[in-house]
Amino acid sequence: MALTVQGMKFALRTGAMIVLARLLTPNDFGLVAMVTGVTSFFGIFRDAGLSLATVQRQSITHEQISTLFWVNLAVGAVLTALCVGLAPVLVAFYHEPRLLWITIGLAATFFFTASGVQHQALLQRNMKFVALGVIDLISLTASVLVALGMALAGCGYWALVGMTVSLPAVNAIALWVANPWLPGLPRRGCGVRSLLHFGGTYTFNMLMVYMAYNADKILLGKYFGTGPLGLYSRAQTLINLPTDQLNSAIGNVALPTLSKLQGDPQRLKSYFLQGYGLVLSVTIPITIFCILFAEELIYVLMGAKWTGAVPAFRLLSPTVLALALINPFGWLMFAKGQALRSLYMSFVLAPLVILAYWIGLRFGPNGVALGYSAMMIVLTVPFILWSKAGSPITGRDTLNAIKKPALAGILAGIAGAALKLMMAEQIPPFMRLVAGTVVTLGLYCWLLLFPMGQKSFYFGLLGLLRSSNRS
Fold first, then answer.
1. Are residues 217 and 164 in the same domain?
2. d(CA 286, CA 281)
3. pTM of the model
4. Helices (H) and strands (E) in the chain, counts
5. What is the pLDDT of residues 230-255, one digit of tens each?
6. Residue 350 domain flag
7. Are residue 163 and residue 244 in the same domain, yes or no?
8. Which of 322, 339, 194, 168 is nearest to 255 (CA)?
9. Dihedral sign, CA of 277, 280, 282, 288?
């Protein structure tokens, strides 16, 4: 059931992107990206890392969760006020008066999010993955309907604002309905200090990661304006869409499961490697396909006016694989309570990635995309080695998880590249995309499941995920 919900969410996100790309302009997306690139900074603090603290802790009391709830709500109120106060600063920075009310409108998202943090954490802690998936689907559907309605009514960029605000509002209401837990009054001396410390470390880590992954949009908005930023941000959103959905689906299961296995290294290792293998087996063909068929994907999904996003889309594609190789080790570190190690890693990541952006900035969005991809590729192996140090995961385990999907991906990529060279430009983009999908992805699946003997592994893993998601 939960896997079906994830598929529906992906289809809904993709459909909304396709329709909104045709109803709105790159300038509309660029204008809102100027704000979200900065207000996302506040979003790092919206749960103060306290949802993860609730999920990761092996035992936790009602008094502790209640105190965390009120801390979350206070943080949400402060962030809302700060965002409103930031509005005139953004207007002056970008020399764009329309940003004032966009920023004020987006400020409400922080309070809505904060009000549902602990309810969501409790559902995740109790492994109620079906309920969480349905809540996400309801919230996403409502926000997409708001956006489409406003876009069809001619509201322009306000459709994107409406979509952003309505999603956490509906999500918070649905979380309270699904989990009618009522917080008590906050209490001192209930043992919440260690939880706050863990959450603070996690939040500081997310702050550094945010700086690494959002400075590109701030720099492009400042020096190149709404049009180039809109193209770049849509390329980045499209390239991340399928893998973000995948990482969310698996991560929501992996983190609480691995947290419960902290005291059993062998089962921890087994569960982690199965999840890691699944992430890579999906991400590798997506990366190869996006590199090969970037023109067709952009044209078919977003329309002819977005073809300027093709180079950035193609150049950003390798980052999807790099992040898929690195990010699952974050689940492992946080499940084991190693938030401090993750923080140290982010201290290294952030300045290096920002340096890569700055070097590529002189060449515009494409230079920024190339710099980002190159740096992430360079950091992949060192970060994997650093992440797994002291864990039961060995280098051989990691290579074994990678090698079969990688070999299948290389062979399928060669076939897909040969097909693209043979197809004439006179063939419509949609037909080229269909042919590329059948050959590249079809061949990849066949190679992985049958000649490489992975059919029983992946079907067994899907069965395990179904049984976990019935909770």
1. no
2. 9
3. 0.70
4. 21, 0
5. 889 888 888 887 777 777 667 767 77
6. yes
7. no
8. 339
9. negative
